[in-house]
UniProtKB/TrEMBL annotation, chains A, B:
Keyword 4Fe-4S: no
Pfam family name, one: Dak2
UniProt keyword annotations, A-Z: ATP-binding, Kinase, Nucleotide-binding, Transferase
SMART domains assigned: Dak2
PANTHER family per UniProt: TRIOKINASE/FMN CYCLASE, TRIOKINASE_FMN CYCLASE
Designated name of the protein: Dihydroxyacetone kinase family protein
Molecular-function annotations in GO: kinase activity
Domain DhaK: 7-328
SUPFAM superfamilies per record: DAK1/DegV-like, DhaL-like
DhaL domain boundaries: 365-564
Keyword Nucleotide-binding: yes
Amino acid sequence: MTKIYNDPAEFKNEVIDGFALAYPDYVARVPGASGFIRSGGPRAGKVSLVIGGGSGHYPSYSGVTGVGFADGAVLGDVFTSPSAEQTYRVARAAHGGAGLILAFGNYAGDRLNFAAAADRLRAEGIDVRIVYVTDDIASAPAPEVDERRGIAGTFTVYKIGGAAAERGDDLDTVERIMRAANARTFSFGVAFAGCTFPGQSSPLFAVAERTMDFGLGIHGEPGVRSDTWMPAAKIANALVEPLLAERPEGAHRAAVLLNGLGATKYEELFLLWNNVRPLLAAAGVEPVMPEVGELVTSLDMAGCSLSITWLDDELEELWQAPAHTPAFRRGSVRTATFQRYVASDETALAGTAEQATPESERAAAVVREALRAMTAVVAEHEDELGRIDAVAGDGDHGSGMVRGLRAAQSAAEAARGGVQTVLVAAAGAFGDRAGGTSGVLWSLFLRTIGESLGNAEPVDPARLARAVGRGAAAIKDLGGAELGDKTMLDALFPFVDALDTYLAAGSALDRSWAAAARSAVEAAAATADLVPKVGRARPLAERSIGSPDAGATSMGLILTAVGDALARHCG
Amino acid sequence: MTKIYNDPAEFKNEVIDGFALAYPDYVARVPGASGFIRSGGPRAGKVSLVIGGGSGHYPSYSGVTGVGFADGAVLGDVFTSPSAEQTYRVARAAHGGAGLILAFGNYAGDRLNFAAAADRLRAEGIDVRIVYVTDDIASAPAPEVDERRGIAGTFTVYKIGGAAAERGDDLDTVERIMRAANARTFSFGVAFAGCTFPGQSSPLFAVAERTMDFGLGIHGEPGVRSDTWMPAAKIANALVEPLLAERPEGAHRAAVLLNGLGATKYEELFLLWNNVRPLLAAAGVEPVMPEVGELVTSLDMAGCSLSITWLDDELEELWQAPAHTPAFRRGSVRTATFQRYVASDETALAGTAEQATPESERAAAVVREALRAMTAVVAEHEDELGRIDAVAGDGDHGSGMVRGLRAAQSAAEAARGGVQTVLVAAAGAFGDRAGGTSGVLWSLFLRTIGESLGNAEPVDPARLARAVGRGAAAIKDLGGAELGDKTMLDALFPFVDALDTYLAAGSALDRSWAAAARSAVEAAAATADLVPKVGRARPLAERSIGSPDAGATSMGLILTAVGDALARHCG
């Protein structure tokens, strides 16, 4: 939905005004017209490329006005062809004396308005050529290519034409090249949700829940067929297959665009590319400077399209040429002169550890058992930990800890050796998978305990208590938190102190640990009264008063579970 | 919502794989790590800038890895800090021997993980500096700047730091410059709707209908205060005012970003810029190479943020320096050497017309009356025409015709002169406001009739019929449609034929016109049986069978209304 506007009826005009104010270094508004030319005005003796269409497709068309691309862009109302009058004015202002190309996507309204403008310009003695783009394979079968709509393939055709004009090609040549580029450009798209007009509250068309439309238009035209939702791998196939069916004989290098329509995330586009690219490779297609992003949008439509322009040597050079526009810039800086990066020897990253003694190997079995108990207890409380974390954080503490502990447990099961080897392996896996604050601190905690215990000496209660204390100190050093800052340390420090006290009083390890764990759980509950001081936005920190700290809570749960495991082992 | 994925648990990994496949000319994946370095590997003797954070913010951080920007980027899970292990691996691969800057937004998880990675790198003898960005003014008051989160201002700080490293500054200098840039960077944002995690169906947080949250985080953290929806002009004020409150003394040139969070349309950003820019100008702030677009997103969150980096000479040079990365490129092509475009003389665009006779001026009054009747009848049927058009088109026929006719009517009322002058004025206004196919064809129709009638001779029935016939022929010539192609001509041609017939049989103009209009209405209804052949996607065209053509329908309505006006005038 459109949220930012003043008067919906003035939406297009305010957008155009704002664009002019944003990029005066690139474009100049044509007086009295809804359109732009390059800020420097027309270059005498150069063919001028004027593109246009309805508003709502940014960066098409104003966003690609500049050196190496379009000379002028004319914009109609949202999804509506610009008028002949507007087109005439922009084209006249863009004309540098060497003729004009008027280019647009193949829609009835655009064809008529641009043709009417061309008539007026020709009446003034200007040589004008019309090129309309017909890349949408969904809109008509191949033998009726002239009936096909123009969608995201317009980007490539205009880019190539703009580059030809920029290097000084004459009008006949630019026209010929653009027609050749269009004839070799094919697009196919998919939509998940329709777009909404400024000032309206419901979309132009709806896509039913868990379905998707193939062959959408970029003006809110619904797709030509619906299908049930499918995973990215199948979407990739559905897009690639019909495009390859129209591949010209012998073509193997291609400019490829994976174009987002507005509301589809960049991350989704890259994920889809990960499924598209191997299909192209399997078919012997080599993408040349592909672009994955938003090039021709359709307001806030959710969906994307795949465009392929089959290159020959002439088109490839023009596709690769530099451009300098508000929304698309391609420099002449090339990285090909650098050597490609070669991976360093992975083994250098592995740590070293002393040979494990049989005692340490037996202790490692207890570590594995403890990790199983830790994983089980946190998984059981995952949702609760998430809810506690969501009060002032992002609510992922439970899921992060479960992810980390599962990875740690797997790594510990797989690792062969003593306590240090097993704990360091678990620590690495934990940090890698859990992420976030908990990931790094718990990883450090486990690693420090492991390195403190080593692989050689037996694990006695005093050495274990000292190792846990060192782990706590390492967390404090790295994290910078103090007791009372509402972190996991508010449970861990009381535990360490209590464990020392009980052991010094002569209690057995399992009983001492269990008693100390109870102290930790109480201390964790008491963090509800505290205000966090480290690393949280102030208003959110204040919001957390009355709720315990998620990290302290999981620490209490884990220490208790480890105590139970020790009791089972010792008992 | 996230629509494109295979297994939600593998979302991040597939995104990273896809990014590597999309931009191998720019970046190389670091083996065994969720991160990238430049494709050429580290440049020996150059300071390396490594940036990172959670996934879900593209183009941050991988998208700005390249010449003039970052040397490496490390990515965690969605909205989760990368692990120390991952960070260590990427930074080690990016290091060119002259030291490392590790830079990230100020979040507890990132601070810990990057610090732990720095410890390991330093243990290997690498000089490492940490720079975290604190631009979000909503997250803590000014005296506690170190508690502030990093949001879109990270972009500017990294860009400036990357440019300093690129030109060969040493580690001390790059660190100093980045700290200076951070100290002069301030951001404030607004959200309209929360974002949704891959694999989940509801957003991380919800913004109530017709409300907006100020001071949002970019990780799904809710805003620090809510407000009711306000127009763009007020949003602009709400964003600019608190940023100006922290303006350093004497600062007036600034790098300004208006950053979209994902689902907000580019058009909305430009509209907002149209409201922001004058506020900055009024405060004496000059934006230098501002960027309006998506630079630091938050999955599909709807909203935006405004960032200001107050420049001094050193920072300005670095902000303007070239960059060459997958998502952000800034060339050294400058347009300043061109003369700024100067508007051509507007008067040259006006047409010429002969002096009007008193007869023609009287006839012009009838034209004005006819235009009023046309406007009234189409306004009355606007919704119906929209519904008919929506069957196979974009449903805007009614609204476009009403917009055009209202403009035509105003222009006709304002124009002084004969029939030609009034009709040509109406034609221009119609084409300008109606847009689309109808806009250009109706504009041509009215203009042709006017030019055929002229300003001098009296308007007799035969001349009027001939003028209307010429108008119809002009539509056919420009539009390329034939009778039976399901267009307005299917009503207009029968009208022209019938009018000739009735006039030739000796009927009065008003009676002849009314009878011919009835033929037009019948013919329009009969278009329901036709299949359109011109300018429509084949599957959509087929969908239109059984529904009349909207253009023919409005033509029938208009001809009837004009007949009524003539009857009133003649009677």
